[in-house]
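step=encode ok
step=design start
structure_in=
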């Protein structure tokens, strides 16, 4: 007689992802939906009809919230959808802004905007959703090779790289604070991926990785990476420079 062991450890997970509307975030959402998870997408914009149609044909479930909604209301809305005794399994901080400008030409507004999106939004959403996380939850920060100490750096990207560097150190720090609660915190420092952001930073550059491939990796890492890593900044890059 044969026994088939089904490991449903990684099925039907509840994952929040910011910057869900395009690029790497959208690709991650699609991968999670196609593999049967409940995804809470956060975006400045309404859900794209193409994504709505895609999602209706997948085994997973998509809930969409715009980021202009009061954070506490989003948190309550997510809590209402979570089945009894379930929590958020993953929170992927993917939303990011890239200001590409020589430092001497930047204004204080640029500094604030860069840190608002890439750093303060991370703090805010983590605090806002903290009550929905617990033992076994995994927070994943989408950082950049530019935010890694000693990596190649590029003119014009000092604000962006500094903000990603702040997220990297925040990853290490928060992981030690929340270890008792069983919440893992890791960062993925991505190399070049072919998205609108890359086009803005490096016009004409052909990246070795498509969003679909990176989205699948991020989704998988969010679901499983906390069993092996905590407080780590993992470099996910094909080349050096990225
Ligand atoms: N592409 C690369 O080569 C690369 C390399 C290293 C790291 N990364 C990181 O990967 C993440 C995704 O980047 P991507 O390449 O997919 O970029 P993208 O195509 O430009 O998408 C960026 C996402 O961030 C959100 N966003 C942008 N500006 C925002 C703002 N002012 N306020 C709130 N949200 C904002 C957008 O979400 P909504 O419009 O839905 O709000 C959008 O979905 C970013 O954190 C980026 O820094 C990318």
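sequence_out=
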């Amino acid at each position: 007689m044969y026994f088939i062991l089904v490991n449903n450890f990684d099925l039907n997970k509840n994952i929040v992802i910011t910057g869900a509307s395009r690029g790497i975030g959208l690709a991650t959402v699609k991968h999670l939906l196609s593999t049967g998870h409940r995804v809470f997408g956060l975006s400045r914009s309404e859900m794209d009809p193409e994504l709505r149609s895609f999602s209706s044909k997948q085994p997973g479930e998509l809930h969409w919230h715009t980021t202009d909604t009061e954070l506490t209301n989003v948190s309550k809305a997510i809590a209402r959808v979570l089945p009894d005794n379930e929590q958020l399994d993953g929170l992927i901080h993917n939303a990011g802004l890239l200001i590409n400008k020589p430092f001497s030409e930047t204004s204080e507004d640029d500094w604030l905007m860069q840190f608002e999106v890439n750093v303060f939004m991370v703090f805010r959403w983590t605090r806002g959703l903290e009550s929905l996380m617990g033992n076994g939850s995994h927070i994943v920060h989408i950082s950049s090779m530019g935010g890694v100490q000693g990596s190649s750096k590029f003119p014009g990207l000092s604000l962006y790289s500094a903000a990603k560097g702040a997220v990297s150190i925040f990853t290490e720090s928060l992981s030690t604070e929340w270890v008792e609660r069983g919440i893992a915190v890791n960062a993925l420092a991505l190399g070049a991926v072919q998205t609108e952001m890359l086009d803005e930073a490096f016009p004409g550059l052909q990246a070795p990785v498509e969003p679909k491939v990176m989205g699948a990796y991020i989704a998988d890492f969010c679901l499983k990476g906390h069993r092996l890593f905590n407080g780590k900044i993992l470099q996910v890059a094909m080349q050096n420079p990225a």
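step=design ok
step=annotate ok -> The domain at 14-236 is CATH 3.40.50.720 (Rossmann fold).
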